[in-house]
Design a protein that fits this description.
The chain is of the alpha/beta class and 424 residues long. Helix content is 45%, strand content 11%. The chain has helices at 5-14, 32-47, 97-105, 108-112, 127-130, 145-163, 177-190, 207-220, 230-244, 251-272, 282-287, 308-322, 329-333, 353-366, 370-375, 380-392, 394-398, and strands at 19-24, 50-55, 57-60, 63-66, 70-72, 78-81, 92-93, 136-137, 169-172, 195-199, 223-226, 275-276. A 4-stranded mixed sheet has the order 1-2-5-6, covered by helices on one side. α7 (177-190) packs across α12, α9 (230-244) crosses α10 and α14 crosses α16 (380-392). It starts with a helix and ends in a 26-residue tail after the last helix. The relative contact order is 0.10.
Length: 424
């Protein structure tokens, strides 16, 4: 296995090979491609042989394979690199004699720490070895962090939709940042003609919500439908009125709105065969700031593994890369809100997202406890409460749709905790 330095390097060096070929399905996550390339260069140099690494491209359920196949010479220097997130034929000429020349100058005993092999003649470095050797190939430029992440999300979404036979996707457009980013991803991945947005305003929606949804739909050239939900919510409340008599309004009535929206989206899915895209991000999903059978409904969740702070970063980057406001400025600037109650803000229930995401990354990605997070400058009491919220929300995450893995530790296969974790 190419990922393990021992005994791979020693075995390959002892084999006195000229070229190693590695066929791989290496899933993507942020920062992995650069690290993987450094590792492969080390393997090539340690084994004293050229290395051709061919990686899979495309999406498979929650995984994305980013390609970026590479060829290294026997010194561990990069000869050729394919681009990310696209199939292509990469050609490279390899100087196979370089491996033999380097082995002659560096006895195996020094590399493997064992008994010296039979004496071999030592030759001086050749000009070909010291200068540009006979290896040559095209080296594709690497992507910036935002462009790479966008490529992963677009690839994962496109392949999930196409490989599962869907023609059209549908999502709720609230005028908020999460649904705006998912709609933009879908338009890039599938084309505007395959994306339908549905605005479902309630009495608690701000005056800008529908206007921002309309502005987004126009800038993306996607279809937009509007279904006011107040009459449907009213019918639900009327049906429950006798059972709820004398009880104060609370989160129950808030969640009714989200569940009405989810029901309407699923009705459109059933009637027209559209795939519903859930728009929840990793920050919300981590702490359970979502409604079962409401905003969690859907067949696929493109940004399930993307923290809220990165949602804003990618939205701003996509506008900059386009040179215009694909995502309306007001959507980027308005305080995040579920709009299920009057003047409601996310910060009524959650810490500010810049703090929340730092706590979540420490706990979810690195298993740091509240005291360890406090040692890194985060409020210990806040960290402890966030950790409790993450643990309590496991049952919700089990019932949500799959989404694209882009962090080293996504919920699901990477991080799966017992739902029942307390003793009576």
């Amino acid at each position: 296995d190419i990922w393990y330095s021992e005994p791979v390097a020693g075995d390959l060096a002892a084999g006195r090979l000229d070229l190693n070929c590695c066929l791989s399905s290496s899933p993507y996550h942020q920062g992995k491609a650069d690290w993987r390339e450094r590792m492969l260069g080390t393997r090539a140099g340690d084994s004293q042989a050229a290395l051709a690494f061919c990686n899979q491209v495309g999406g498979q359920d929650e995984l994305v394979f980013d390609g970026r196949s590479v060829v290294f010479d026997a010194r561990g220097e990069l000869v050729a690199r394919a681009s990310q997130f696209g199939e292509e034929l990469l050609l490279a000429d390899i100087d196979l004699e370089l491996a033999a020349r380097r082995r002659l100058r560096e006895p195996l005993a020094r590399r493997l720490g064992g008994e010296p092999p039979p004496a071999l003649p030592v030759i001086a470095p050749s000009p070909l070895d010291l200068a540009a050797n006979g290896s040559v190939g095209r080296i594709a430029p690497t992507l910036g962090s935002h462009e790479e992440l966008w490529g992963a999300l677009v690839t994962g979404l496109r392949d999930y939709v196409d490989k599962n036979g869907f023609r059209t996707v549908v999502l709720g457009l609230s005028g908020g940042i999460d649904s705006a980013l998912v709609a933009t991803l879908a338009a890039d991945a599938l084309g505007s003609e395959r994306v339908v947005g549905v605005a479902m305003p309630s009495p608690h929606s701000s005056p800008h919500s529908l206007a921002d949804a309309q502005a987004l739909a126009e800038s993306l050239a996607i279809r937009l439908e509007a279904i006011p939900i107040a009459p449907v919510v009213g019918a639900f409340e009327e049906a429950l009125a006798d059972l709820f008599a004398g009880l104060p309004r609370d989160i129950t009535e808030e969640n009714l709105q989200a569940r009405v929206r989810g029901t309407l989206l699923m009705a459109l899915s059933n009637k027209f065969g559209w795939l519903v895209l859930a728009t929840g991000n990793k920050s919300e999903i981590s702490v359970g700031y979502s409604t079962l059978y409401g905003d969690m409904v859907g067949g696929f969740a493109p940004i399930r593994d993307l923290y809220k702070t990165w949602v804003f970063r990618l939205a701003r980057w996509r506008n900059e890369s386009e040179g215009r406001e694909l995502i309306p400025r007001h959507t980027l600037e308005r305080p995040p809100s579920a709009e299920l109650a009057p003047d409601q803000l996310d910060t009524d229930s959650l810490p500010p997202y810049d703090l929340l995401d730092r706590i979540l990354e420490g706990y979810v990605e690195h298993d740091l406890g509240a005291r360890e997070l406090a040692a890194r400058g985060l409020p210990e009491e806040m960290a402890a409460e966030v950790i409790r919220m993450v643990d309590r929300a496991e049952y919700k995450r089990r019932q949500g749709p799959v989404g694209i893995k882009i962090t080293p530790r996504a919920f699901g296969k990477d991080r799966r905790m017992p739902i029942t974790s307390r003793h009576a």
